[in-house]
Amino acid sequence: MKLKLIVLLTLCMSPFLYSQDWNGIPVPANAGTGKIWKIQPQSDDFNYTYEASTNQATIGGKWTNFYHNTWDGPGPTKWRYENTTVSGGNLHVFATRQANETKTFTVDCDGDNIAESWTMAATRAGCITSKTRVKYPVYVEARFKIANAVMASDIWMLSPDDTQEIDILEAYGGKATRNDWLAQRLHLSHHVFIRSPFLDYQPTDASTWYTGATKTYWTDKWIRLGVYWASPTRLEYYLDGQLVKVMDNLDTVNGKDGIDPLNYTSTATPRTAATRTGLVKEMDIIINMEDQNWNACKGRTPTDEEITNFDNHNFNIDWIRIYKPVTDPNLGKQDAKIEEKKLMLFPNPFKDSIQVKSEKNISTVQIYSLSGTKLLVEKINNTNATIATKNLSAGMYFAQINWEDGTSVTQKIIKE
């Protein structure tokens, strides 16, 4: 009996038995015909403790507590090992300032194409880098609360040679008059670079600064933001489960292809459109805060008084999850299950009601939002029923049909 109790306690304490924070939240991107999403080992729910270290260290076995090379950050930023902790189920990446510590940097602040030298109070900040890399097709999504600071809260992917970059999140959440325009926007973008001589393409159209339908200060709430890096030429951005932006080589930005209009990923000399590769390189995942040169030189850097407010300068990340589309091992089995029971769910799209019919008794129908929230449960215990859907707003949902024999299927449904 004692041995059984020890085994039971050991199993109960096993981290593999705990539900991940994102359980029940479906991946909003389409994995493709015959594909399903498979979770990747880089995913992290931050349900552990990591205390700040003044030395290089590993966080949760998945991250290092610094940038992916020796650079210490842009502008007045000084990335520091000790500005990262994990506690309370969250990763904390934060900014501080040391008395009399300065940093000198160059920036063309006035737009005259001449870089000037600036010396400012240094801003210490946390930065972590994944120990393993990701490559398309891959979906990367995080749940976080942006810092209420005029400096940037960032989650991004970057190739080891610093020539290809995908910005999942770049946000300046600080509620300050000098920062009001930025505080109401999320920067959704990417870069392709040539390092020598330095050339950088980044789209600048209005869609790269996402505002939402109404005036929103993004630091006020926890949000989910994800990017499906579907191919070398396609990026899909999802905010709280909803597609908000697509960038690909079919979009036009000032009449040019969206991913690489200047041929910076070209493999030929001279560079040509026909030989450009798009975003093809493996990338590290980086999470950090930074005080950027172009922003700092315009006064959008934390004041000494502002930065003493730790809570405002703490970027909180609840979790980050990474998925790859893989061939569905049950391909055809769900169709067979539907065919066996002659299931019909109609109309689809629907308006105020939806009809469900089957040759075998259905116990319940459950309707979920794309974020995994259960919105409706209808007990049927029959072979057919009409489900009232007047209280559902227009959009896409998941309907889970449960039969009395214990089997179930899930289908996407759309309300007009």
Automatic annotation (TrEMBL):
Signal peptide residue numbers: 1-19
Protein's GO biological process: carbohydrate metabolic process
The keyword Signal is annotated on this UniProt entry: yes
GH16 domain boundaries: 20-328
Pfam families registered for this protein in UniProt: Por_Secre_tail (PF18962)
A GO MF label: hydrolase activity, hydrolyzing O-glycosyl compounds
UniProt keyword terms in alphabetical order: Signal
Keyword Signal: yes
Family classification: Belongs to the glycosyl hydrolase 16 family.
NCBIfam families attached to this UniProt entry: Por_Secre_tail
Designated name of the protein: T9SS type A sorting domain-containing protein
Source organism of this protein record: Flavobacterium potami
Lineage: Bacteria, Pseudomonadati, Bacteroidota, Flavobacteriia, Flavobacteriales
